[in-house]
Structure formats: structure tokens, C-alpha cells
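Moderator note: this is an archived Q&A kept for reference. The question asked for a predicted structure of one protein chain; the sequence and the answer are reproduced below.
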Amino acid sequence: MKFWNFVSTEEGRTLYLDGYIAQESWFDDDVTPKTFKAELEAEIGDITLWINSPGGDCFAASQIYTMLKEYEGKVTVKIDGIAASAASVIAMAGNEVLMSPTAMLMIHNPATIVWGEVSDMKRGIEILSEVKESIINAYENKTGLSRSKIAAMMDKETWMSAGKALELGFCDEVLYTEEKIPEAVINGFLFDKMTVTNHFLGRLNKSKSQTQNGAKQKEEGTDYNQLAKRLELIK
């Protein structure tokens, strides 16, 4: 099942990237990468890429990033919802990266599952370390931030509002704002994983306590089950 969609109009080409990137393994798939490349090169002209994705396969993100960087036309990235994990890597391929004022961008360390002996565990760590270095390249080329700062942000799993992404260089413009962006928007918000998780855990425990004590459904707050689902999404 494709996670992308090309649309051509008189105004130009638009590429929509929604949902999980490469639900099936892109690394072992000979068909999907070729299909994406064929559709990308089927026409010429500038492309507007709309992204709303929680991420996915880092190998898919790497290859799509490279294909977009190699594309002869201008690529304008617009993040309307979320560009997290692997999706944030693809976003860095844009000649321009624009974010909706309500959008979020998230970067974190790559993860995988390793099975076997101690030597296999060590090898897994080595591979993840190299994958992280390759991902840092995309962020560094876009933002100009130091590798150590980017690495620290990835370690903490950092969530950025549009204003904070603009301030740090992850995007070039916040959509639908005046030519001169207010200082409040520039400063924006930046949350690490611990801050976000603790916030939800605090509300989760409170909501759970109210449920166990027979609190009325009309009480203010978010349903316990809904908060639990949100917390799982953050993880």
C-alpha cells in the first residue's frame, strides 16, 4: 500500500506524504523504491510536498531524501500536521521548508530490534550509531547546528513547534503569518521526551484516580483511555 500520492494540476505538481512511511520493509523491497522514483521522474517541474507523518522506515526516508535532493525541479516542503522521526528527515530535502503554525516536528534516535548473543547486541549498537550519524547529516545540512547539539536533541527526543523549528533552522517560514513574524512565534516551544511524557503521565494518573473513585463522567478532564492511547503514540 502506497504512503504517497502525486497529483498534477495546472499550478504544478503536488506530492502528499501521509501516514506511516513504508509499512513493509523498504530495505528488502525491490518494487516500492522503484515505483516511487518512477512516479517522481514521470513529469518535470517544481514540486510541493505536503507532509503529515509520524515517521517510519529510516532506510525509506534516506532514499526518498536523496531522490528529492537529486530532483531537478524545486521542492517546497509544507508540514501541515506532523513531521516526526523519519518524516522529519524527508522534510530536510526541501529547498524551502514551511510549517503550519499548528504543526509539530520531532527528531529522535533511530531504534531497532536485535536478537542473538552479546556480539549481536554490540553489533546492533554499532549499526544504530552509524545510522544516527547519517541522520544527523540531513539535519546539519539544513540547520547549520553543531552535530553535538543535534545529537543531544535526538537523545532527548525533541518536539518542536513551528516557531521553535524556525528559530533553530529546521524550517524557513511559518505559514499564514505576516511578513514580520512576532517574537512570540519565533520563540515557540520545544519539548523533550521526558517533559511530554511526564505531562501526560500526570494527567493520566489524575484521570485514573478519578475513574477508580467513581468520579462523574461530567468532570472536567480527558478520558483515561484516551490519555493512555495518546501516551502510547508518544512512545
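Archived answer notes: DSSP finds nine helices and nine strands in the chain.
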